[in-house]
Design a protein that fits this description.
This protein is mainly alpha-helical. It folds into 2 domains: 114 residues, no CATH class; 126 residues, Serine Threonine Protein Phosphatase 5, Tetratricopeptide repeat (Alpha Horseshoe), CATH 1.25.40.10. The protein is built from 16 helices and no strands. The radius of gyration is 22 Å and the shape is elongated. About 16% of the residues have low confidence.
Length: 300
Amino acid sequence: MNNILQDLIIKKHFNGELHGDDLRLFKLHLNNDQQFAEEYVKQLKNRINLKITDMNKEDQTQLIELYLDGELQGDELTNFEMKIQEDREFNNEYKLHVAIRETLTNKEVNEFRDKLVRIGMQSENKREPFRLKPAALYSFLLFVVIATVSSYFIFRTTYSNEEIFAQYYEHYTAGSVTRGLENGTDDVFQLALKKYNNAQYKEAIKLFRQISDTSKLFISCEFFNGISYMELKNYKEAIHCFKPVIKDANGFYYNDAVWYMGLCYIKSDEMNEAVKQFRILQKNESNYQKRAGEIIEKIK
């Protein structure tokens, strides 16, 4: 395959323009043509600076696996780690990869990496484009809103529990990883994640509950159960799910679980307990450090 055709095919893949037989042919080249595979990896590394929404699921997975295998260096490594810090959705995807990779042996990791080029990841649902109103009207309305909101907050010093929660709660987006883990467990976990991502939280909880507390995936299941219960407005049950997750301060979901548990305590009007959680995050170097401090100030 000449270089021009090779670049064209790779570009079409990045743009999501390959489907059916064309996509299968692309993966065949990726799996059997070393030069093609090396060029794909080279161009993939150059895309690190793109927003996560501009990368398809398979490219995200390949990039994370390159990082976990220690194949990113220099600016590539720096840019990737900046993306983890700044892009919440990508950070969630990365954490899921790492958490599941921890349960695998080296042999299983190698087998999964070999399978990546043959397995198509589910494509992101296309979002409806945002249509701006006429520029002049939009600018005027924006000015009015900002002026009104600013004057309101300047002269007030107290915030209700509902206001704090509404300002800081963001749904935790789970990634999607396909790999062999434990007999029977993998299918259940993947189906549970699918239900979770589709906002079918009751169904997701039932599936996560099927995974034994002796499984290496148990902590991940409890974390996602906690978020599911939050979405169902059952905050006490959510707290119950987060408790085993925060037992390990080095766990990948530790800071996330502490953050969401603090928000649950706010909704449950247990403000002393909420402050305890946010003080933990205030001392940690995490994405939640600044926001935890802001909440503590608003609770005072």
